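User: Show me a protein chain along with its predicted structure.
Assistant: Here is one chain, sequence first, then structure tokens.
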Amino acid sequence: MLEGCCQSLEVQLDQEHLAFGAVVQHCQVKKRIVMKNTGDTLAKFKWNTTNFPPALSITPFRGQIHPGRKVVLEVTFAPVELNNDIRYEKLSCCVEGFSSPPSLTVTGSCIVAPTSKEVVNFVCPVRGSHTQTLQVCNPTQQKCCITPEIKGEQWSAAPSFFLEPLQNKAYEITYKPVTMTAEGTKNQGSVFFSFPDGTAMLHSLQGTAEPPKPEDTVVEKLPAKTNHTLLLPVHNWLSRQQRFHVLTEILKPDKPDPTVSIKGVNFIEVPALAKINYKLSSFIYREGQYDIKVTFHNMESGEYLFYLVSLEVTSPRVMSTKKLVTAVRQKTSTTIEMENPLVIASCLTTECKCHDIIVQPQHIVPGQSKYSLTVEYRPLHVGESTTRLTLSNKDLGSFHYDLILRALPPPAGRIVHFSTSLGSSQSQMVKFTNHCPVKTEYSCKTDCPDFTVDKSVIASPGLKDGSEICVEVSFEPHRQGSIRGQLLLFSEAGGEYVFPLHATCLPPKPQGPFSIKAGRTISIPFKNTFQEATAFYVQVDKPYFSVREVGTILSKKTQNILISFEAPPRESPELWSGKLIISAQQSEGDSKPYCWTYYLKGVPP
């Protein structure tokens, strides 16, 4: 008995005609077909895609199917040319060992996408941004990923997004122009949404790029008469280098003058997509509010950016500090350099609360020139202090200078010399210069009782070079030898003066002759110059002269010594002469007593 079997190969499509219907231009629709292997052997297939039109594709385009199995094929129709009747017939698939391979016919049409009647308008400053929201609805019953197609380099948005079946979702699109639109023109663009069912929606976009807004409004607070530098970041938004011309405008005050100096380089180059800080330097004389506009202009493209700068100029700082050191009543000086930027001369008024500072009340500074101001310091009191000198002008504002002052003790005044004998006195006029600018009273005293002076002296105002004042000092010694002392003059306003007093006390000088008529009595005043009550002894050397005892005389008191004369009967008048001797014991330890001699002469009646 003979037995056998026959194996066959047969492949079939579940449909040989695939109709896509109307599909929007540049959209695509996908449909599936099934290929079955109804034979007994393995079937290897391959679609002849070289004959497929560009608008049609199939995946997988090759593969193998085991007996009794099937494979799902996905056909994509994506037309790009408008056509109401598109037909692709007998698209062949080759199956190895099968003489009657399956074929597929595809039909459809390509239509224009519907356009939204409403144009989406965008308006913003150049290099700014404006975002609008579009509502996108999924018309299908399946979840899909939408990849919008945006035309116009000024617009940007998310490259894709997902939609649930029949979902309505907001889609944001941003307009960000880098160049201004000319007057009467607008940027044109569109956004195209395509859906899996071949439908689509096209939105027209229009954008207006207005002149730029300020990059920033910079607010700075700075003192007057101070060099100030402000850094302004300049961004290059292009992928190529840009060269900007820099224009600085002073908006406030309306009519600036040379007291407002705003400077910077005239051109700046910024590399592609980079940033460079522009240095804006300012020097402003007066306090106030100053508004400035700094524009960076690309002369080739006409594009520009700008900053608004608001400067609040406050009271100036101290321009400089000067140190002045000198002795009391001695002058020293320093120089202050000033500059007038105006074309006209300016009058500066000076103010200083320290009376020891000597400076002219007003100064004329010629226009556009420098001026040296001399400041003198003549202190009246020893010590250290700090004061401020301010120069003011309505156009130039105020100039502040700190003065650190140090007054050293004055040199000793000139020595005042005295020379007189014990029992006598001598007076000297001591002169000094009063530099106090107002009338003042000086107290006067000495540190030695042999020197006496009035308690006070009135000094007239010492203006430019001072006023000369005289003080009388009397010397009345109480002992012989060298005597030293000091004259002290003091005023709260005028300061202190010290004068050394050097004196020499000589032995008492003989005095006379004193004439006495016979039978008469005369008195000779005698003063106790000692500092304590003293017992004095008197005697005459001739018997025809007689004197009364003196006894004790109080200190600095004067007593009259009474002397009588009786003419001798047998002597010639030429011989009627004698001496009165007054003596006193010196202080303990002195060897000889002090003696005062008075010559006497008798006269006939």
